[in-house]
Every structure is written in C-alpha cells, then in structure tokens.
Design a protein that fits this description.
Blueprint lengths: L1 H20 L1 E9 L10 E4 L5 E3 L5 E6 L5 E5 L6 E4 L3 E6 L9 E4 L2 E4 L7 E5 H4 L18 E5 L8 E5 L12 E4 L2 E2 L11 E7 L2 H4 L10 E6 L5 E16 L8 H15 L8 H4 L2 H8 L6 H5 L3 E13 L3 E13 L6 E14 L4 E15 L5 H6 L34 E21 L2 E20 L13 E24 L2 E24 L16 E25 L3 E12 L8 E11 L13 E15 L11 E7 L5 E7 L2 E2 L7 E14 L4 E13 L2 E5 L8 E5 L2 E18 L2 E18 L20 E4 L2 E4 L5 H7 L6 E3 L14 E5 L4 E11 L2 E11 L2 E3 L49 E3 L2 E12 L2 H5 L5 E15 L17 E11 L1
Parallel strand pairs: 1-7, 13-16, 32-36
Antiparallel strand pairs: 1-4, 2-3, 2-5, 5-6, 8-9, 10-15, 11-12, 13-14, 15-16, 17-18, 17-49, 18-19, 19-20, 20-21, 21-22, 22-23, 23-24, 24-25, 25-26, 26-27, 27-28, 28-29, 29-33, 30-31, 33-34, 34-37, 35-36, 37-38, 38-43, 39-42, 40-41, 43-44, 44-47, 45-46, 47-48, 48-49
Amino acid sequence: MKKLLMIYWLLLGSAGLALAQSHVVKGKVTDASTGDPLVMVNVQLKGTSTGTRTDASGNFSLTLPSDKGELVFSYLGYQAVTQGVNDNMNVKMEKDNKQLDEVVVIGYGEVKKRDLTGAVVSVKGEELKKVPSTNVMESVQGKLPGVDITKSSGAAGAKINVTVRGNRSIRADNGPLYIVDGVQYENIQDISPNDIQSMEVLKDASSTAIYGSRGANGVIIITTKKGVSGKPRVSVNSYVGSSKVAGYPAMDTGPQYVALKREANHTTGRWNSVADDPLIFNASEVAAIQNNLWTNYADLLIHDGLQQDYQVGVSGGSEKTKVYLSLDYFDEKGLFKLDRLKRYSGRLNIDQIVNSVLKVGMQSQITYYDQNTRPDPLNQANKIVPLNLPYDEKGQLILFPNNGSMINPLADEQPNAYQNNFHITRTFLNAYIELTPLKGLSFRSNFGVTLDNSRNGIYASKNTIGRSTASSSRSQYNTGSKRYISWENVLTYQKTIRDHSFGATAVASLLSDQRDSSFLQGEGQLLPSQLYYALANNVSGIAVRTSYLASKLISFTGRLNYNYKGKYLLSLTGRSDGSSKLAPGNKWAFFPSVAGAWRIGDEAFMHKQHFFSDLKLRASYGIAGNDAVSPYSTASYLSKIPFSYDDTNSALAYGIGNQIGNKNLKWELSATTDIGLDFSILHQRIGFTADYYDTHTKDLLLQRTLPTSSGVGTVVQNIGKTRNRGIEIGINTMNVNTHGFSWTSNITFSKNKEEIVALADANTNDVANGWFIGYPVKVFYDYQKTGIWQSKEADQATKFGYKPGDIKVRDVDNSGVLNTADRIVLGKQVPTWSGGISNTFKYANFDLDVYVFARIGQWINSEYAAKYDPQGLENSANFNYWTPERETNDYPRPNASVSKDGTPFIKTLGYKDGSFVKIRNISLGYSLPSGILKRSHISNLRVYVTGKNLFTFSKVKDYDPERGGDLSNPLTKMYVAGLNVEF
C-alpha cells in the first residue's frame, strides 16, 4: 500500500511540474487590408504537430510546452506568416495573389493571368508528366475545357486527334496550330514532356487572332525549358511500362461457327443433320469438327507490348549565359510483332546576354525515328474459318490452312516475309536576336527552320496477307523531304502613364513550306534479302512517281493592349495574311478582333465582402481565316492517258486531271463571339472559369463532287456554312489542407453543338457525302433497325416484302413502303459533352492522383457488331441470331443463299451508342525525405507506379470505344513504374 501511495504522489508531482512549465498563447488573426477576422486559420508550433485553428471571431488559444518557439499561421489564399511566441499575438495576413500573377504565354508575348482578356488555358510542365504517353497531347486528354482529344489506335506511335471547339470545316484541316518556342511545328510527338516548361491553349478569336489564318482552329503554344544561372541542375526521368489490350471482343469459336454454317444451310434445305456436314464443309473441316480442332487467331497475334522512356536534362549557366541540354530515348513495342517505334532526340537551348541592349539565343532539337509498322492482321484473323490449326506437326506454318482460300493470319510474321520500315530525321532550329534600345521598347527577330527527311521501305513477299492473291512479291521505296522556314520580326512597346498602361505589338512574318517526295515500286524481287533495295532488278511492275508542293504565307500584325487601374482591360488586334494557295485577287484578307475584361474583384465595392476572392468578366469578338487546302487547288493539272493509234502503236496523250482548278478560290472565314467569367471564392479555395462561345464559319473550302458529264471528278470551292457553339467550364478546388494532408480536385466540362448551316445548294442536304443541314459534319445516316420480323408478324412483313427472320426497320414516313425516304440521321460521331475530374491526394511524402474521363453522346459504327456473315463463308462475331426455334430481335436468320451484302439492311447492325467513362490514370508516388537525400547530394527523388487507361465503362462490351468502331489495332492499357531524380 505504501508503494502505491508513493507512485501516486510521484505522478501527481510530475503532472504539476508539467503544468507549471506549459505556456498558453492567445491571439487574433485578421486580414491585413480589411482588418476582418479570418476563420479556421491553421496555427501550428513550428517543427511539431501541436496546433489549433481560429474560431468565428478569428481568435485562437494554444497550449505550448514552453514560451519559446515560433508559430506558423497558414490559410488558403493568404501568404503564410511565421512569428515568435508571445502571450497575446495580433497577426495580420496578406492575400496571396501568386496564381493571378502567374505569367501566361500568349501570341508573341506574355501577360499576367490577371490581365488576360481572352479564353486561354495554361498547363504547367509537371502536370504533363503525370500520364506517360508517346504524344504529350494524350497526357492532357479531358483536362482542357473545349479541347477534344482522342487516340486514333493502339499501334506504336499512333496519331492523336485534337480539335478545339469542334469541327468548323467540312473537308479542310480542323487541327490546331502548334507553336513551339515561337515557331510553328507540326510534329508535336517529337517533344518530350520532360522538356516542356508550360503549355497554353488559345481558344477564342481574340487570343488566336494574332496568328491570323494559322490560328483559325485554335493555337497550342509550348514553351520548352531554359537554363538557369547558378549551380548546374541535373534531372533524370525514366519509366518502363507493360501494355495490354484494353478489351477485345472474341469471334466465333469452332463449334459456334459450325452451328452458324449449319443453320445457314438448314435455311436453304441443304443441311438437316450432322450426316450432311460433308455437303457444306470440306474434308479437312469435317475432320476438324470431329476432333474439335479450331484456332483463335487473335490470341496468337496479340501480345503484351512495352513502353519505356529515358531522359536526362541539364540546366545551368551564369547571369549572362544560360544553357539547357536534354537527351531522350523512347521505345514503344506494340501489341503485334513487327510493330515498334524507337525515338532518339536531343535538345539544346541557349540564351546569351551580350550587353545591356542585346540578347541572342537559340532553341534546337534533332529527332530520329526508327519505326516498323504492319497492316493490321486482325481483319484476316477475324474472318478466316477457325476450323484449322496454324502449324503442322513439325511446327511449320500452314500457309493456307485446311487447303482453304484464306491465307494464314500469321503469314506476315514469318522470316523474310514482310517489312515496312520508316527512318525519319527532323531538325528544328530557332535562332533569335533581341534588342532593347530604350526602356519599354524591344525588337526581336526569330528565324526558324524545320528540316524533315523520311524514307519508307516496304517489302511484301507473295506469301503475305496483302499479296496472297498475287504471283510475286512487291517492293516500294518512298522518300520525302520537308523544308519549313519561318522568319518573324516582332516589335513591342510598353508604357505606363499614371493609371494607364499601354502595350503595343507589331509583327511582320514570312513563312515558306516546301515538300517533295518520290515513289518507286517493283514486283518480283530476285532475293528476299534485298527487300526494297535494288529495285532495278525487279522483273515487272516498275513504277516511278515524284511530286512537289510549295506554299508561302506573308503576314503583318498589330496588337494594342490597354489597362486602366488594372481593372479595365482592352485588347485590339488586326492581322493581314497573304496566301499563295488562293486565287489572284483573293490571296489577301484582314482579320480583326477585339476583347475586353472587367476585373470586378478589384473594385472598391468588393473589398468588404468575403465570398469572392477574385472576379473577372471577359468578352471578345473576332474573325479568323483558313486556307487549309492543298497548294495548286486554283490550277488544273494534266495527267497522262494511255492511248494508241491501233493495236500495236502507242502514243502519248494528256488530259485534265481528276480535280479541276478554281480561279475564284478565297479564304474560309470564321467569326467567333466569346463571353467568359473567371472567379475564385472562399479565399481561393474554389476557382471557377466558364466560357460561352458562338462561331459562324462561311465560304467553306469544300471539295465538291462534279457530275461525270463535266469530264472531271472534283473541284475545291467556297461553299457552305457551319456553326459551333457551346460552353466550357473549369473548376479547381482545395478540398482539404490540414495536418500534412491535402486533397485537390480539377474538374472540366465541355459541351459543343456543331452543325452545318448551308451547303452548295443552300438548304439541300448532300446525301451522297453524308452532310445534313442542322447536324454535325460527321453523322451516321441510315435506316433505323427496330428488331427482327417475328413469326407472328409474317403477314405484316410480307406487306413490306420481307419474311420472319429478316431485319425490321422503321417506316419513318408511314408510307407502307421501305425505301431511301425512310433513312434518318441515327447519331453523331462527336460527343454531346465531355469532361474529366482529377483528384490529387498528398500526405507526408506520398502522392496519389486519380483521373476519370468521360465522352458522352457519341455514336460509333461498330465493326464487331457488323461482323456477321449470314452465309457462314467467313467467321462471325458471336451473336444471338434468329431461328424458327429461337426467335430473337438481335440478328437476322442465317441464310446460305444470301450474301452479306445482299442481306437487307445489314449495315444497321453496327450503329451503337459509343458513350464511355474511363479511369484514365491512377498514379501513386513517394518522394524520399530531404534529410535522407542531403547525404547523397540528391535534391529530389521520387518513385511512382501508374496505371493508365485501366477501366472503361460503356454499353459496348469488351471494347474501348474512344477510337470509334474499328477492330484493328485495339487500344491498350498500361502498367508503369517510374523514377524522377534531381541533382
């Protein structure tokens, strides 16, 4: 008992001593400019987890272990404050305008984010590296409001499709203009995401107007990294990932195919039992049926792919000389053999201050591609009769399985059978000289050159899929050369007079684009090892073609920016472009724009409210042009025509080519109105931007089909009108930020209504080309399938000329007759809306990023859904088809006497709702603590794992509908492990 009492008094004494040493601190936190109390401010003892928050009156009380130390006050939207401990603390916090003061790159200049008058989205380089990809544009899919990005296929190095605010042109190019370090650059896939400092997307006419005709479809500006003064900094970035097919639907198995063909012949009365199999299958197929031998060729063709990237960047320099050097190796192996891309690139950026008025520099990059591609083999794999084995007992390929007419889908993969190899070298150089002779005045001259040289060699032996019906091999050797030269001179002047700020920019530019190519072909190569070389030795089919294209664009631009008290902003732009592609008298056009903004949040009447942290209203209007047609569209050309006087004597003859020239060709014009609202609320906890735009395009550059009586095929004319209007929303939120844990979200939403307003004949639809007034450019126009005629509907089907088991379509006009008047627009190939949500979680040294992307309202023509052969001559997809014993509304009755093309309304089977939601990216990273890294001279080390394109949710089973309905080169999902190190 005495021992217990002693322990009790010792504990009580220790507690009393601790209380005697503790220290209570009280205080109040207010806004430095308004004096208003700040609620829920984090108050934390520096270097510890001890802390509290301010109450509704801005007051706080915190018990500390002693009267020593410093308190850190942090609050979203305000600059952090650190103060020594006092008994009664009065803390004033300044607003943090870092986001508004961020510099955004615009055409031929930079502005602070707060001074933007146009619709511009900016993405920092760190964001671009979150999704490992071949093309940097893929990494921002769904993250840029108003920018629609899709991948064309799953092949190595596949193209990325990008449109900004929908399709304006019907047949002219709708892709955006890419500007890299101030120079136009077509091949954005050359740029490593690790080399990019920032990306800006210019969307409205005011922002793009300074680029004139080149910016009609939006502008994407990429600024690469530059050197920094001081100690050299080295970064190493690498990742390795394994790619797998992102769902691929299966064709019929052997038994399923047998059942289909039996039913097709049962319909005609040729097959009634298994005893009749020899009547519809050959001897080899009968043996395969009896032994249950069949092959799924897709499984043999599709393999796991590989993607890896290794990049080293070095940045350094002095106060006057700054250098950035980067080397990158990228390797992607596709899902098929013979599908591989290797990219080697090097970048050197140098900036040199010569003296107080002169600065020079250059940005340069060289990129080399070594790429092997192949025709997609799945088309052959999906139609070949599966009742066979691909190899014989010795493991040798059976070229024509079961003695059939279809070649083995694995034929191209055999040694010396097929090769399609590209060698591409691109050199990019942009040199500049910049003079600042007076304060506020600068002159910069940029000279950019892009040299593109390519060679494509193709060899296909007679034992390949493409040559299976030919008697000899074919070799092709194609070369191409592009020379793009840009010379731009930019004069800028900045002046501030009391509350008035002026900025003037004048630009004169000359752009030259020259391209030539050659095509060589021969058949019957003597030695397979010679591939596509020594074409003169080919025994037949020698063909030679060459081509040349050239165009020039001369431009003069002026822009005036005005700012009054930082609250009222005005921008006026005018650009005059002259294009060599257009007709004399129509080569020049003037493109004006105007934009204004009102920073409501800076008004005096807004200072006493606490809901809005920032508020700005924007509006703009402008006209842009488009000359995106092939050079020489104004001229008719001659083509050689085979001609002879008699059966033995030939002669040379020439005629007008397929396309006749148009001497009246002029600019395609787009006028855009944009109204935007930017604001942040709750001390910048939530940031919001929204734009409404309306674009009217007229004088479309349209290739029009001419009647055969004209003697030519087509002509490019200025005919038709389109309209694009929609809304774009971007939301950034700070959901949680406390005790070392943060959760931020980024939400985007884009809704675009795209429609054709007029065509060649005013309000008349162009059914032949699938263009319809009031609908988008790309739609599906056909009969509407409503089911299959059932046995109980036999009498009604007969009235329409059909029978039970046939496809039933809607009688739109209720005429009692099914004809072309019953075709309607079933769906559009562009989405009704798209968007994404990205959530980033950080705790201690861990970071987790989850990104979800959606594309809703688009339709696809599913190749799989239409993969149905009612005759059973080829393999089919596994579908529930109609039989008298098993009636269904899915697919028509098999019929050996009716071909696929002869089956009424067979094309209606493929039209499907292609809307989808996908988990685009999940990435988990860990950064080593700085204390550990100091001993190894490493400033930062982060390891991460990423899952890309992991899950897709749609109505289309076992298929990723992002790329449309094609079965070739399926899209992939990828699992990645990566490393980022900085020294």
